Amino acid sequence: MILREKTNPIIKPADIVPxxxxxxxxxxxxxAATLAKxxxxxxxxxxxxxxxxxxxxxxxxxxxxxxxxxxxxxIFEKESSGIDFSDPRSFRVDGKLHLTSMAHLRGAWSDDxxxxxxxxxxxxxxxxxxxxxxxxxxxxxxLEDKYILTYSAVSENGVCSSIAESKDLKTFDRKxxxxxxxxxxxxxFPEKINGHYVAFHRPxxxxxxxxxxxxxxxxxxxxxxxxxxxxxxxxxxxCSGKVxxxxxxxxxxxxxxxxxxxxxxxxxxEKYSLGAMLLDLKDPENILxxxxxxxxxxxxAYETEGFVDDVVFTCGAIKRDNGKxxxxxxxxxxxxxxxxxxxxxxxxxxx
Amino acid sequence: MILREKTNPIIKPADIVPxxxxxxxxxxxxxAATLAKxxxxxxxxxxxxxxxxxxxxxxxxxxxxxxxxxxxxxIFEKESSGIDFSDPRSFRVDGKLHLTSMAHLRGAWSDDxxxxxxxxxxxxxxxxxxxxxxxxxxxxxxLEDKYILTYSAVSENGVCSSIAESKDLKTFDRKxxxxxxxxxxxxxFPEKINGHYVAFHRPxxxxxxxxxxxxxxxxxxxxxxxxxxxxxxxxxxxCSGKVxxxxxxxxxxxxxxxxxxxxxxxxxxEKYSLGAMLLDLKDPENILxxxxxxxxxxxxAYETEGFVDDVVFTCGAIKRDNGKxxxxxxxxxxxxxxxxxxxxxxxxxxx
Lengths: 351, 351
What we know:
Order of helices and strands of chain A: EEEEEEEEEEEEEEEEEEEEEEHEEEH
Structural class of chain A: mainly beta
Number of helices of chain A: 2
Number of strands of chain A: 25
Oligomer: homodimer
Radius of gyration of chain A: 19 Å
Largest sheet of chain A: 5 strands, antiparallel
Helix content of chain A: under 10%
Strand content of chain A: over 45%
Low-confidence stretches of chain A: none
Shape of chain A: globular
């Protein structure tokens, strides 16, 4: 049985120091999770902020300007602009999407995996023209002595997938875009398979098909190819809307354990749950088993009501020495939570 | 001055033998163009066909089924299905796109570059699950002793970009998908630059930004990365809607000559024209010059009226020994045409 941490949410927006005095933190969720070399648990959170705004007739859009290197605030008058502001997350100006909050990535450290000390300033802050609207949904895979970070770089160019690397989880060197817009949910396997790095990703082909998990291969982590559609949302209602890889695959004796998210589209709301599947260690395209029902669905109040209702979403899980797997997950695009399950039981669920 | 071949269109649908007796050819356009090793001109046409249909109340969709290896015809009753059939090119069933015609790729050979002998059967016919709806818009680059073909593989998975290679322009070996859906207009440079293969491509990020030319790099033609947005449709009205690379870049003493298409969105019609730009030989991201106005726009009746009105679109051009450049171009998504221009003059236009 999956056990939610009793102090959930373990990280809330109020725990985060904003990146600037004129900003307020609105979300701290969807965290990458990995073991640091010293044994501590490291999380990298998606932190969303928005400009403090005391004028209800104004909408303020934060945006990184790569030409000046400055963060800018664009102000729109709600009544006179003729723009539709009914969605609190975004609106369109002359067809272009504008986001009302901006995300950066922020490190956090823990000795026990439950209580975290959060860094006081951003670890990865928007810094290129592909990140003008923010950096979202980090995943970290440890490959030999390096930590490989992928994240969604969001701008008027769409949602690109970027890669960066670090030796110490403190500074990250950007290595460019690895998957073209629009794409999300990059999960790199923690070791090479048959001589190649392997990743899951999820291209978005608006209107052609439902968002599916694809696989890709690379000789060097920078250049990717060998693309194949891997898993498509057809299996059952809870993941009939879309699917995407969640935590980077975990190696077990039985195979690669993949925790993924599935979306049920019912009525006006999308409901995000987590599932698990098991893949052949030598051929990750070979699915050995898949869960019959979600391993975690929104049930607690902090999962069903928030910035976006009915969302549990993982970007990282850690296999502990005691046979348990800690799944760190974002709830309602607002807070970070933890759930624990025995590896054996999760494997049974995934078969 | 650009000179249209007086016998334009040089190839028409009626010149093509359909791939099956129950199909009729509706288009022969958007051809790759290259010089064969024996000096002949080789074209690879996008040939569209549709099932012969004598029942006006039926819509028939041709589709390759990769599980059976068979081409199937799906029949829809227009009156009872509740489906919107107002667009003759496609319609949606439960949200999924269905195309009323299917494209394959067909070779054609010429001694004089004007009169072509067209092969009697397809050269590349849909054969994978990514090609169920067809293979479109081929481009061929000669790289050392190989011909490298790229084309759009269209299926319910979206528009993927596939690569294949050939030594003789007769058989082509598929090498997989190199750019994720949705993406079109792949143009591979005919030689490595700074140790890498280089390509233009055009991801489609519906709703985020206008379709732009991007650049990519590869060590081996199979794995690609180093993605950057290269050129965006902002310059002038004729290419304000979208831009995409046309013919694979031509090496000249002054730089890489790139013939591209631009789309003007005016009223309900899109108007496709051709432009030219010049790039630094050693750094193709450095634009040395760009045309002030299109080098070719729809003017002749065979360019302004057809399956899709107001379209000239190139997938290939050949630099001749006499200092002229032959631009092969599709007109109205229906026929293939030829226009010739002095290299010197085209370079002047591109500066």
